[in-house]
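Sat 14:20. Reprocessing the chain from the morning session after the first attempt stalled halfway. Input below, unchanged.
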Amino acid sequence: MSSNALYTSLLRPPILHILRAAGFHAAKPAVIDTLVDLAARYLTLVASKAAAHSQDNHNDLVLTTIDMRMALQDVGALWPQKTATEEHITGQEDLRGIEAFVKWMEGEEHQEIRRIAKLEDTEMPVAGIERPPEKEDFLSALKKKHNKTGESSRFQGTVLGTSAEEKLIRIEGGPTERLEDWAASIRKQPGIRRESTLEQPSSALSSTMSSPLSDI
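Finished this time. Tokens:
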């Protein structure tokens, strides 16, 4: 599976959760694929804008709240919003877009999405009964379901796990243990030189035939 197909598969469940929270209970596969593609393009656009602002603001890729705010403004996520020129003329900062975004994050729509995704604890606490553990996101639950030996052993070195440690490939039965050391020792031996693998043309015709083709 290519990286694009993997990321598309990981993005599909959140899109289904959002549709379910909005009241949809069925959809054609083509519709789901279209929405997933649109969401992937939108997230890529937001990430690229945030990275550009991060480089412009502090010359690194460590994102800050200001970088994300500017990126969301660029893609129109914070609305209504005055331009920087209008804010400079009026002398007041327009916070309507940010306030609307915060209101949505704290509103019923977002809570319903989290409930469908099993990230929102909707159970009321009962006296004398131990509180159940916090809910896990779908990806963590899916990894535990299909992995009986532990995350570090199966998903290590992939986008779903931790980074794999580099290991040296040792050569047994010789004085050297690494390929780099063996290649260096071979080059140092007397009488060994690098030979060209390309033969010289024997005639003008062969020279013409062996020349690379030019672009049309």
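The CA atoms of residues 67 and 164 lie 31 Å apart.
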